[in-house]
Design goal:
single chain, 768 residues, 22-stranded antiparallel β-barrel, globular
Amino acid sequence: MISGRIISTEKETVDFATVYLKGTSYGGITNQEGLYHIKAPAGDYTLVVSAVGYTKVEKKVKLVNDERMKLNITIAPETQQLDEVTIVSTGVSRMKRSAFNAVAVDTKELQNTTKNLSDALTKAPGMKLRESGGVGSDMQLMLDGFSGKHVKVFIDGVPQEGVGSSFSLNNIPVSFADRIEVYKGVVPVGFGTDAIGGVINIVTNKKRRNWFLDASYSYGSFNTHRSYIDFGQTFKNGFSYEINAFQNYSDNDYHVDAPVKNFETGSFNESEKVRVRRFNDTYHNEAIVAKAGIVDKSWADRLMFGFTYSHMYKDIQTGVRQKTVFGEKHRFGHSLMPSMEYSKRNLIIKGLDMVLTANYNRNATTNVDTARYEYNWLGEKQPLNSPGEQSRQYSRADNDNWNGTLTLNYRIARVHMLTFNHVLSAFRRDNTSLLAVEEQTDAIAKQTRKNISGLSYRLMSSEKWNFSAFGKYYRQYVAGPMAEDGTGSNYVRTSRMVDSWGYGAAGTYFILSGLQVKLSYEKAYRLPTIEEMFGDEDLESGDIGIRPEKSDNINLSLSYSRSFGKHSVYVEGGVVYRNTKDYIQRNIQDLSGGKEGATYTNYGKVLTKGYNVSARYGFGRWLSVGGNFTRMNVRDNEKWQIGSTGNSVQNLGYEARIPNVPYQFADFDVNFYWRDFGRKENVLSMTYDNQYMHSFSYYSQAVGSKNNDFMVPDQFSHNLTLSYSLKNGRYNLSFECRNFTNEDLYDNFSLQKAGRAFYGKIRVHFGD
């Protein structure tokens, strides 16, 4: 037996705190006096204490037969109020006390794998990772039927829009994060965002550590190398620093099935596929993140200054469809980002907390398309009439991003909380052509400014229920070049201002112990992103006049969790409703000379209805098994549209599925753990997991072909991971086989991904 009292650094009793033995089902909640009691078999454990508004604490404990251990623990207030994880299970945790439909993905079990942050996210219910190829390829995350720009990404509550492709989620190793929070649909005001689909918040480890070192290296198929190092320390005087660096490299020379152009006839048969190897798809990126500052002072709980540098190089193998192949086209770029973070609890008056962040990001991307030859998938080439495989260019896009966030939380008697958040972001892009001897910069820059303010009230008078209501104000200024006529021969500077109001509410109630219901609604707006307004200056074109999306979002979920001795069970089901107007859709457009590109357009009305189910079972510290199933109907809800004559005509695609959107998918995993394997404190673990995706059309089935020409087929991939951890995680070895049945895997517009692949990894971890 272990028992004790949980108090805060302010000498206050902490009731309703969750106390449990890590990796087991043993645990409980403190009573009104802050007392806890846990009974478990004798052994060595890690005791974890977490509570809303406080930093999580972990302590090593040793339970002895027939002895009662007393351990009082003091926990410090948490300056970031977004963390509300109070139930922990293997892999995915329910953010129990939050009224919002949210889960947290624990990355600790994945840190011995070669997964990146986007791979880890696929464990969350309703989440689907979409990639156009291998390492470093374009990536989108789909959440409950919404993908790409509908889902916003944050790191420790700071928005990541405009940071550049060299620092995206599919480049960052999973060890970078302590956990990943996923808010589905309705989003708390504290993020200050205009997301419609949801929010992903990467939470790094901010607890005070004397010193630590975490380093790893992996090698695998397609000449793929990944390395990572993270080290730092906090001194007694409060000075703290951390340096995090990582790199990825891959030839991405896997085989694909593609039509081959016959240069003699000038055409090819798209239905006749040939097994070929990718040959112009090398990718590498490098990044370093350094932070230094002061913690735990009377005038600042945390004051950190940071600097991030990242660089990337990417060969461009294909266009937006797989039949298009490039042999020399490539791009490279870098990003520089200084940053500042300040937080103080009980600022001026007790109960008032403030978090202030600011950063400036300068990223430059250079696109090079000057080849004098056209290539086919066999690597054969023939001279072009004019240089350029897609469109002749050697140009640099200089992007300047400014971002500032202010969050104020005011607690009143621990029952009421007011939250105010304001986000200011500004962007400017200058395009410079490098084709001539002297650089030529476009006369008209592309600019945008975005302000989002939010105010919420939260009532939490009982552990059984809580309620939040909020309002948001959105304002965006956009300026840039617009063609005077359809010929595009002359551009003039144009600008516009849009603003909107949004509001919503969320509540949760415990029907029975372990049985919880959550309901949330939001009148949401999503302002167009940089890519949607300005494109990527290469394969995608934007529309400066594109309108914001408007949506009514409803989320309802029911979850149940229970422990029976060594057995633990968790089941959750949720339904989703989204009624969206001016839906922003990415489409493929045919360009002159047989070229293709992507563009963004507003599409009338789109209705999303669906559900997802997840379940997990655990047996002590030895077994965890679970999975998720999602089905989402994302359908055209525009009954009438404007015809070529300007009159309203019936929409042939009415009630048809929105193309290029997966609507049914699932995943499943089984995890075995052999504790003290070989010697004490060693752990051998084996994981089997799979992903299933039902076939979907990448063109509208209502007006397109009825055969399988435009279908992404059913896919079912399987993966195995074997890890051996020595000396309580100090030394780690792992081996992975991904897609071991060598299934053909496809995604956006049927772009093919890698087949069977093998990876090995070594990792060391020192410190506390």
